[in-house]
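PROTOCOL LOG
Step 1. Enter all chains and additional molecules of the complex.
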Amino acid sequence: MTSATKTPNATREHILHAASRLMTLKGYHSTSLDDVLRASGVGKGNFYYYFKSKEELGYAMLDRIILGFVERTLEPCFSDGTVAPLDRVRCFFDRVLEAQRQRNCVGGCPMGNLASELSDVHEGFRQRLAEIFTRWRARLTDALAEAQAQESLGPECDPAVLAYFLVAGLEGAILLTKVTKDIQIMEACVGELKAHLLLYTRGPR
Amino acid sequence: MTSATKTPNATREHILHAASRLMTLKGYHSTSLDDVLRASGVGKGNFYYYFKSKEELGYAMLDRIILGFVERTLEPCFSDGTVAPLDRVRCFFDRVLEAQRQRNCVGGCPMGNLASELSDVHEGFRQRLAEIFTRWRARLTDALAEAQAQESLGPECDPAVLAYFLVAGLEGAILLTKVTKDIQIMEACVGELKAHLLLYTRGPR
DNA sequence: CTGTCTGTACCAACTAGTCGGTACATAACT
DNA sequence: AGTTATGTACCGACTAGTTGGTACAGACAG
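Step 2. Run joint prediction.
Step 3. Record the structure below.
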C-alpha cells in the first residue's frame, strides 16, 4: 500500500463520493445500493459497517453536498466584505450560471432535485433540505440588508422577501435549463434576476 | 347512450386517474405498477391490455396532466382577449398561487417534479416536458408581446426572455414552497414577479 | 364462434438489508 | 517469548419482498 494512505476511513469516503455522484444525477430512489457499491468497489457487508441504512447514507451524502455547495459556490462570493454587497449577489448569480454551463446543463441543482423528489415523501429529508435553503437565503438576506443600510437598495425593499425570490428564480432557472438543455435560458434568467435588483436600486447603478 | 359521456373505456380512465394522482405525489419511479393497480382496482392483465408498458402509462399520464394544466390554469387566464395582456399574466400568477394554497403546499408542480426526476434519465420524457414548458412560455410570450405592442411594456423588454424568467420564477417558487411547506414564500415570490413586470411597465400601471 | 375485455398465476430481475465468516493488527495475559 | 483475546475492516452469499412484465384461461358481448 502506498504511503499516502493515511486517510482514516478512505472506504467511507469512497462510498460517499460515489453516492453523491450517482444520487445527484439519478436521484435518491433510482440509485440502488448495488449501484453505489459497484461504483465504489465496496462490498455490501462493508457498506453496512459504515452506514446503518440507505437512509443514513442519504443524510451523509446530503451533508457532503451542502458542504461542497457552501464552500465552492456560496462562500467564495459572500465572504469578502470589501466587495459591495450587491456585487456579491451578482457574483453569486454568475457562479451558479457558470457551474451550470460547465456541467453542460446536466444534473440540475442537487439540492433542488432532492427537494423535489423527497419533500412530500420523506419528512426527515424535507426538514434538512428546508434548512439548507433557509441558510442559503440567509446569506443573501444579509447581503441585501447590508446594501439597504448603505442605501444602495431602496427602503421599500424587504431583503428577506427579495432573497426568497432570488433563490426561487435561480432554482427555477436551473430546472428549466436542465429540462431544455439550453444554457441560454439560464443566461436569460440570470439577466432578469440582475435586472430585478435594479428595481430597488438607488444611487449609481 | 347517455347524452353526456358514453364512457368509452372507463377502465383506462380509472388507471390514468390513479396514476396521475400517485405519480404527481410520489414521482414516476417511486410509484409502482402495483400501487396504481391497487388504487384503481384494476387487474394486471387488464392493465397490460390498455398500456403496453409503464413507460407508455407515464406518457399518457403526462398528456393528461398537461391537458388539466392547460384547461384549468392556463386557458382560463389567457383565452379572454378583452382582458389587458398584463392582467392576464397577473391573473395567471394568482391562479398558480391559489392552486398551491389549496393543495396545502403538497405536491409541488407535477410537470416540474417530473422534469426534475426524469430529464437526465429518460430522454423521451425530457423531450415531452421541454415541449410543455415551451408551450407554456409561448402563451406568456404572446401576452407580453401584445402588451409591448400596446406600449404598456417598454421596447427594451424581450418578451421571450421575460417569459422564460416568469416560468422559472414560478417553478422555483413552487419548489421552495413545497420543501418549506410555507405558503408565504409563494406569496412573496408572486409579489416579486408582479413587481418585476413593473420594471418594464410604461404608462398607467 | 369471434373479438374485446378481465382476473389469476406466474416469472426473472432487482430491492434493501442480514448473515456467518475472514484477515489482520494491536493488546493482554502467562 | 508465546498465545490468547479483542476490535476494526472487509467480503459475498443469502433472505424476504418488490419490481415490471408475461401467459393464459375465462367472461361477456355481438
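Step 4. Note key features.
Chain B has nine helices and no strands.
Residues 1-51 of chain B form a domain with the Arc Repressor Mutant, subunit A fold (CATH 1.10.10.60).
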